[in-house]
Amino acid sequence: MVNRVLLDQNGLFVSKPGVDVLSAQQKDLQFSSDYGTLNVLKRGVLNLPATPEGYPVPGNGAQQVTVNFGKTFSARPPVFFAVRRTVISNPKQWYQHIGSHIEFIYDGPNRIPWYGANVFNNRFVFQTNYNSDSFLNGPWEIFYIVWDYDL
After folding, report:
1. From residue 51, how far is each of 34, 84, 94, 135, 136 by CA, in Å?
2. For residue 76, what are the contacts with CB-CB under 8 A and spacing of at least 6?
3. pLDDT tens sequence across 81-120
């Protein structure tokens, strides 16, 4: 039986099954404390009402929400978004996105954006837009997870 776990002054290392951790190369490790890991920094749920006709217009910011991280990263962190309209016939239909910048999501023949998010080093801004197809206007439920890349 091979040694699979090593904890010493250099850190914690776990090798792949069948590989001795004492002689393993980096590619043969399942875990190495030499590398940062993703941790959940913040998670939450946003609920936005249906988008009013004519949005966006000056002074009507109800359909744009900012979530601050409480921390400033050196680069934009990855953020997971799961988005759904809460008045559709299939309430389990979620649109899922992950990244450090989510472009506006388009659908239908008129190509009007439904929603989008922009991730910054210390916050993200989520926005929904008015669409002439009323069923695309929400209300919206947005589940998000901000990942802390621990660098």
Report:
1. 47, 14, 18, 10, 9
2. 100, 101, 119, 120, 121
3. 888 877 665 666 777 877 766 665 655 555 666 778 889 9
Sheet holding 113-119, edge to edge: 64-68, 123-128, 113-119, 101-106
Fold topology of 39-148:
Immunoglobulin-like (2.60.40)
Is the distance from CB of 129 to CB of 56 less than 8 angstroms?
yes
CA distance 148 to 143: 17
Delimit the domains of the chain by residue range: 1-35, 39-148
Average the pLDDT over 140-146 and give the result.
Answer: 90
Per-residue DSSP letter, 80:
E
Model pLDDT for residues 29-73, shown as the tens digit of each residue: 888 888 766 788 999 999 888 776 665 554 454 578 899 999 998
Q: Which two three-digit tokens encode residue 113?
A: 């954006």
